[in-house]
Design goal:
Number of helices: 7
Distance between the termini: 25 Å
Strand order of the largest sheet: 3-4-5
Radius of gyration: 23 Å
Order of helices and strands: HEHHHEHHEEEH
Largest sheet: 3 strands, antiparallel
Helix content: 55-70%
Length: 256
């Protein structure tokens, strides 16, 4: 019932977002078609990976940042909290709309866009489509890992949406950049304290993974067990933690 009400109240915004995504996908397909040279007879599916990642991440971030726009105005906030549904149902409903629904719709739009590009290229430029799905992702970074990364991006914007209700996407994006740069500078500070003058340059490190020096042992990499521990925390602890924090943030707003 909550999902039905949410969709009925915001169906115009959802239809507009879907239309814009589909228009962007078809527009990109047309640009790619007109830039396809006559001597390019093979179209590899893996070549579509960069725009696929960019558009998917953008769509996920935009919709997740709008999760709690109802809290921006007093009337809509009262309607949101007086609705006979638990906070868990409301947060879960927003997650289903902004991640599950968005993922399904995005892939449908991406499929339509690619089919448009394929039809035009095959019909008018005699191109051949190569379905090299195995080249889309690295064996150690599978599509499941990519979805986990998108889920983490969604969780960050979903949590940020509990703080910002107007112009939420640029505000959350800016705060996320500040947070990531803060982690980077923290890592640089720790690396300079530990390795001092032996660093190749003051910034030559991969945050929390490796440090590059001018010594005989050029690079120092974190132990495998620590790397796996960090990866486990990022994959299975950080994302649920952001969900839980989002739930309690909504509870705080209800009390206020």
């Amino acid at each position: 019932m909550y999902l039905r009400k949410e969709i009925s109240d915001n169906y115009k915004a959802y239809l507009l977002t879907i239309s814009l995504m589909l228009a962007a996908g078809i527009g990109f397909a047309l640009i790619a078609f007109f830039n396809l040279h006559q001597w390019e007879k093979e179209i590899s599916v893996s070549d579509m990976l960069p725009p696929y990642i960019i558009f998917f991440a953008l769509y996920i971030g935009l919709d997740a940042s709008r999760s709690f726009n109802a809290l921006a105005k007093t009337e809509r906030r009262m309607d949101f909290f007086l609705l006979p549904a638990s906070k868990f149902e409301k947060v879960l409903g927003q997650f289903l709309i902004t991640f599950v629904f968005v993922t399904i719709v995005f892939h449908l739009c991406a499929w339509i866009s690619f089919k448009t590009y394929q039809t035009l290229a095959v019909t008018y430029k005699d191109a051949v489509v190569v379905y090299d799905w195995h080249n889309m992702f690295h064996p150690k970074f599978t599509y499941f890992n990519f979805l986990q990364l998108m889920l983490g991006l969604h969780a960050a914007f979903f949590f940020g949406a509990t703080f910002f209700y107007k112009f939420s996407f640029p505000k959350i994006f800016f705060c996320l950049l500040i947070f990531l740069f803060g982690l980077w500078f923290l890592n640089i500070g720790i690396s300079n304290v530990l390795f001092g003058k032996s660093l190749h340059d003051w910034f030559t490190n991969i945050p929390f993974f490796a440090v590059f020096t001018n010594q005989e042992k050029f690079a120092y990499v974190v132990p495998e067990w620590l790397g796996r521990t960090n990866l486990f925390i990022a994959q299975f602890l950080l994302i649920p933690a952001l969900w839980v924090l989002s739930y309690f943030r909504i509870g705080d707003k209800e009390i206020q």
